[in-house]
Each structure stands twice: as C-alpha cells, then as structure tokens.
Amino acid sequence: MTVSVPEDRFEDVPDFDYEPQYVDLGDLRMAYVETGGDGSPTEDEETFLCLHGEPTWSFLYRKMMPTLAERGRVVVPDLIGCGRSDRYEDRDEYTVDMHYDALRTFVEELELTNITLVCQDWGGLLGLSLAANQPERFARLVPMNTGLPDGTQEMSDTWHAFAEMVATAEDLDIGELVANGCYRDLSEDEIDAYRAPFPDERYMAGARTFPGLVPQSPDDPGSELFADAQDRLAEWEKPAFVLFAKNDPITADNRDPLRGLIPTASEQPDVWIDEAAHFLQEDAGEAIAEHIVEFVDRT
C-alpha cells in the first residue's frame, strides 16, 4: 500500500516558498521543486540536479537554491519515502533498485541534460551511479559527504549505531535526527520542517530502511550497481569537484578515496567545508553554492 503526505503538513515550513510538482512513476509520484532557468529548458541550459539523502528532503537545499538559480535551472526532487514524495508503507518495498529506478525515471521524464549533479548522502549513492550509467546527460559532478559502498568497505561504529537506532527506535524523531547531524543549532521551525513529511509511523518506512540498504558485503543487493559506478567513474573525463565537511563522523573518511577515484577531481581546488557536519547544506549552504557556481564558471 502507498500513502501520500497531506499537503497541510508543509504549511508552516519556513523559507521554502516553492510550488511542488510531481512526476508519475506508476505506483508512486515523485515530488520536486524547481527554480531558475528561463522557463523553456534547452540542451544547453545549465541544470543543477540537487539530491538529498537520509532522512531529509528538498528543504535541505533552500539556502543553496537562490545562488544556483542565478546561474541556471535548479531541480530538487524528494526521494521516494521522503519529503512530499509518495511512499510505500511496507519496508520490504524499499530496495536500492527501486530508488535507482525511480531517480532514473524522474530524470528521463523531465528530459534533464547538461546536468551539474549536486549530491549528498544517499543522493550521492544514487546520483553518482546514474551519472556513471548515463554520462551523456551529465556535465559535472559535485559529490558531498557521500560515497559508493560496494560491500568491501568497513563501516564505522558510529554508522552501525545510527543504522540500528533508525531501524528499531520506537519513537524516531526525524527532526532531532537531522539536528544532531548539523554543526550549527537548528531553530525549532527548521526541526519541525524535517518532521513535516512524517505524520506518523505509516510514513516512516523509507526513512527507517535507508541505512539497512547500504551493502555490507559484495553479495548484498546494490553492491554491483555501486561497484560498476566506481569502475565507470574511474574513467570519468568531465569536471568533478568533491566537497566534504570537516566535522562529519559518518562520511569524512570517504572523501580522499572518492577524490582519488574520479580522475578530474584533482584538477579542482582541494577544499574542505569548515564548521559543517553531515548535513553541510544546512551548515554552510550559501558558501557551498558559491563554490559550485565558481566551479561551473571555470569549467
């Protein structure tokens, strides 16, 4: 069974006055917002595809969208089970393939091209895999606080504790979860904005399953997709700019291997985002957007 989040849950979300739009995926609708561009997309138009991860939604990019919109079209979807997107109630419906296919269909339905991919957390696992498989659609990569776990990697004790808590906590407070992953203190209104997509447990299945989808061995579902993406990105010839936060205990160790994997990443400045943690868009969104626009301008 699928459920849709009542729109009135989003009435009090601050600083996010964008009209939601939807792509029909068959069983589900994938929500997104967009801004910038001239209203008539062309193959040559700069398009920023901004992908969030667990357990956030497009609201995470609100501080970056105005700056990026001055440079091109900005498209920010909500992954299935997150934000305004529809969701399955059954946890078993959430798989790596389901999420990947949903994102692929979304990009194809909107006919997105000349994409600068801006991605964090699960947005990177899915987005980098899509870019690796459809490089003709993508012009640049900006991976942030993410990776491509193929099951051979070691996950930290912090990550394992997080995954266990998300899957089993009786009362999972998504707002507090996000707040704890930020360097700065969020306001109560901001914390409530991250709670908004989750009225009750029926809406939580996607958020609860994401950590458990990370491959823990090369035989796990998703490991082949991510391993293949690594192989393809090792031959990537288009610009790539790796931006990680200094204070993220979950993904900081992924930064140098990812920067070493993508050949063109070393051609860009060696930048860490100071005073930022896992949700670096919250902590330093405006500065990150400026880094990205400068990257686009020089490439």
TrEMBL record:
The keyword Hydrolase applies. One of its GO terms (molecular function) is epoxide hydrolase activity. Residues 47-283 form the AB hydrolase-1 domain. The keyword GTP-binding does not apply. It comes from Natrinema salsiterrestre. Keywords: Hydrolase. This is Haloalkane dehalogenase. It comes from the Archaea. Its EC number is 3.8.1.5.
